[in-house]
Write a structure and sequence with these properties.
With 185 residues, the chain is an alpha+beta fold. The chain has four helices and 13 strands.
Length: 185
């Protein structure tokens, strides 16, 4: 064994028209620069999240793409939850990358052409418990200093469009200079 980490990859892709908690797995998705995922309920230049849109519909959409590491699903399954790609509303399920530890502005190159920039952490909400009781608490934790750790995925905007499919490689490009950790968006 060499001890090398596996190449980060796309495990699954999902989208769904309209606003629903879960998304439908697909063979591929098309990312649209500055908008999000073609045909998805959260696609748009301005905020599409229902709660945020009611507060200020003119704000930029920082939640165009939702990513969750497949390793979270493994953890949740070990705690008795039945979880599959798309169930938690994510568009891209990844493997081999600890998304929540990347700094704000990190660019992920997905497949041949698509590029997204991380904008923040997903804030677990009550809809998670409506999907499966106890799921919201299972996606929250505390570090040694008592700070909240959010494990429900990260959000991003589309920098360069393109097709993304399961099996695609993910290249990580962290921002130069001083970086900021991801915060809830």
């Amino acid at each position: 064994m060499t001890g090398e980490r596996p190449q980060p990859r796309v495990v699954a892709v999902s989208f769904r028209r309209g606003h629903h908690f879960s998304k439908t797995p697909a063979l591929s998705i098309r990312l649209l620069s500055g908008l999000g995922i073609e045909g998805d309920g959260h696609c748009g230049a301005t905020v599409q999240h229902r709660y945020d849109r009611r507060r200020d519909p003119t704000r930029p959409n920082l939640r165009q793409v939702h990513l969750i590491p497949s390793e979270l699903f493994d953890d949740l399954r070990s705690k008795g939850f039945a979880i599959a790609p798309g169930d938690l509303g994510e568009n891209i399920t990844t493997s081999g990358i600890d998304l929540a530890t990347l700094p704000t502005g990190t660019r992920l190159h997905l497949g041949a052409h698509a590029v997204i920039a991380l904008t923040g952490l997903r804030e677990p909400c009550v809809l998670m418990d409506r999907f499966q009781q106890g799921l919201k608490a299972a996606t929250l934790d505390r570090d040694a200093d008592g700070r909240t750790i959010r494990k429900a995925g990260v959000m991003a905007i589309v920098i360069a469009g393109g097709e993304v499919a399961p099996g695609d490689a993910i290249q990580i490009e962290t921002p130069a200079g001083h970086t900021q950790p991801l915060a809830p968006v």
